[in-house]
Amino acid sequence: MRNFKIVLQYEGTRYKGWQKQGGTNAGRREDAESSDSSFLETNAKEYTIQGKLERLLSRIAGEPVEIHGSGRTDAGVHAYGQVASFHMDTKLTAEALMEKINSYLPEDIAVISIEEVPDRFHARLGAKGKTYRYRVLNSSVPHIFERRYVWQVPEKLDVQAMCKAASYLEGTHDFKAFTSTKKGKKSTVRTIEAIEIVRCGDEIHFTFRGNGFLFHMVRILMGTLIETGKKNRRPEEMPAILESGLRENAGPLAPACGLALMEVSY
Amino acid sequence: MRNFKIVLQYEGTRYKGWQKQGGTNAGRREDAESSDSSFLETNAKEYTIQGKLERLLSRIAGEPVEIHGSGRTDAGVHAYGQVASFHMDTKLTAEALMEKINSYLPEDIAVISIEEVPDRFHARLGAKGKTYRYRVLNSSVPHIFERRYVWQVPEKLDVQAMCKAASYLEGTHDFKAFTSTKKGKKSTVRTIEAIEIVRCGDEIHFTFRGNGFLFHMVRILMGTLIETGKKNRRPEEMPAILESGLRENAGPLAPACGLALMEVSY
Question: Which of A80, A110, A144 sits opposite B141 (nearest CB)?
């Protein structure tokens, strides 16, 4: 079996997120539901990106293909550089396979690169780091053309205060207070290498680079940073929030639409 | 009555274009259809931008308000800087009126500036020049996030050849061959001040500046220029096409989605 690594872009607006309904591993629920209807005519709102790709690859291969993403993205979150891998028997060149996949994909998902990789490569297990970008439109005037990709925050925001708050969050910490996951079995310790905050015209871009992020982590970090920017919270509160490990001490969950997975490193 | 000039942005994807169904002047057909349902709950796909704005302004004013755009935009064409004017009795400041309008507008239309102007100002009659931009994505890889705003042309395009063809089209000409209007009563002579063609990464941007453009004119110019870029037509053919005045001698109608009205000058 050949092993392929693909880089994907998608606009998350219409989807229930990356991950297939029914579990982390080759869940059958979503597949079963769609088995009697064309994979090209499904109502995308009910589907996940992983499910959509698996159905498509399985049709091309003529047998079930399992695809592994570098990690989940929530419903509504976008990707400029999601990475996924899958094993498949095919006589097509990698380029021809990419072209074939793209010809079947809806217009809000695209494979932008493909390469054949050694058999042991696994998009999730091999991921070493991830970069997310969150775009805030800091203006009272809506931006018509970018509205699906930004969170509009009309209030004045203190970038300096947000940078200071971010500096407390960088590094290795237990981010339990910054995740929506209830069950406490797995480690919630993660390392954020950097949080960069840059004003670009009427937008503010927040770039998060780290070794991995918990469920909702970037969006809760964003909600907390924006409260700091509005002066409703002091940057110096960050260590106590981390320390507490309590979700209710952190800020609200920022909207999904502002968030995009930019890059995964291996 | 106070007279207001507004600058509008809209994403044309969902709309039947700028102009109200039922004629150039305060047509009643569209208004009548919607009179018994809330203007906030209309199915936008059936509506025009002008119709939507007139219903909204009439509600705010409590009496019929007529709005004049600088000109029509076709179904699916976008605007970064459409200008419109309307007379209205209101005690609101211009800024408060803009805020009120924006609070009722759907998320794909926004007023980005407003000013009170002398009574004689009329957005259509006073317009001296217009700038349109057409975006071509010159790549075989689709651009997920910009797909609503570009025409994807994967074939290799010769920018030099297109620039040469454009130079024949600049100036004052009878553009009868470049319009879809059948009736030949009105003058089809227009002046194109400049056609600028610039490669920006994997996109090519075409900027058209002129004193006015006929129905479908920019899109037929684009269809013709792209044929030249693909080497299916020689730049030197342009004068003969203009001369002929025959629509069938020009190229195909380029898709609406790549086109945007950028600016109107007075």
Answer: A110
| DSSP 8-state secondary structure symbol assigned to residue B258 | G
Mutation choice for A interface testing from B99, B103, B140, B145 by most A CBs within 10 A: B145
ipTM for this prediction: 0.77
Tokens 């227009």, residue?
A: B190
**Dihedral, CA of residue A146, residue A151, residue A152 and residue A158, to nearest 10:** -120
A4: pLDDT strictly greater than 50: yes
Instruction: Report pLDDT digits (tens) over A195-219.
Output: 999 999 999 999 999 999 999 999 9
Low pLDDT (below 70) residues in chain B? 22-46, 184
CATH 3.30.70.660 domain residues, chain B: 129-265
Q: Domain B2-117 - what CATH class?
A: alpha beta
Q: Which of B80, B109, B142 sits opposite A107 (nearest CB)?
A: B142
H or E segment to which residue A80 belongs: strand A78-88
Q: Which residues of B touch A114 (CB under 8 A)?
A: none
Quickly tell me which residue has 């957005």 as its tokens: B123
Task: Give the residue numbers in A contacting B (CB under 8 Å), as ranges.
Answer: 9-11, 78, 80, 102, 107-110, 112, 141-142, 144-145, 147, 149
CATH of B129-265, one of 2.60.40.10, 3.10.270.10, 3.30.70.660, 3.60.15.10: 3.30.70.660
Tell me: the pLDDT tens digits for B89-128? Answer: 999 999 999 999 999 999 999 999 999 999 999 999 999 9
Q: Is the dihedral of CA A145, A146, A149, A155 positive or negative?
A: negative
